Amino acid sequence: GEHNSAFDHEAFLGDDAKAFEELSPDESQRRLGLIFDKIDTNKDGLVESHELKKWIQWTQKRYIVQDGKTQWRVHNPDGAEKLTWEDYKKATYGFLNEYSTDSDDYKTYARMMDRDRRRWQAADEDKDDALTQEEFFNFLHPEDVKHMQDIIIMETIEDIDKDGDGKLSLTEYMSKTRVQQIIWLP
């Protein structure tokens, strides 16, 4: 596949990736040196694969936390202890009333809302139909949350299952695998 350097920059630098594009070569090199020192945890002057892996995981976790806090403030402007499904649905999908239920746009957004609803219910550990901030983070970013793994598997299968028969054909699987190789693998 093709190498995606923008993905590498984002994984390595996180939110700082865009800022690096604006820097002079000397300033970019200086800042990369500072990052190198942070990554090289055993201070041997080399970045080993386990150090780089740990750095990228930290960068991704930082993004997830920042995004979660931002989304929490946007969806919960009053700072309530919990966010209800009805409030979230109104803020996120309230515009659906403007569409005809027969339109393709309505059907697309209705499927997205159903998917969000299912994920919401999985994130709602105490089953009160309202999410705490931590539950909301799990709703937004379920990747590393043990009790959310079944939802991720279900959503992934739905994404790959292009004919909607509930099964993955070899063609569907291979098509998805090729995309992953191009995007995610070195």
Structure description:
By secondary structure, the chain is mainly α. The chain has helices at residues 5-13, 17-21, 25-39, 49-75, 85-93, 104-123, 133-140, 149-160, 170-183; strands at 83-84, 130-131.
Which features would summarize this protein structure in a list?
globular, 9 helices, two-stranded antiparallel ribbon
Secondary structure layout plus pairing:
Elements: H1 5-13, H2 17-21, H3 25-39, H4 49-75, E1 83-84, H5 85-93, H6 104-123, E2 130-131, H7 133-140, H8 149-160, H9 170-183
Antiparallel strand pairs: 1-2
Helix pairs in contact: 4-7, 6-7
Low-confidence stretches: 181-186
What is the radius of gyration?
21 Å
Beta percentage is under 5%
- Discrete helix count: 9
Extended strand count: 2
What form results from the Cα inertia axes?
globular
Quick structural gist:
The chain has 186 residues and is mostly helical.
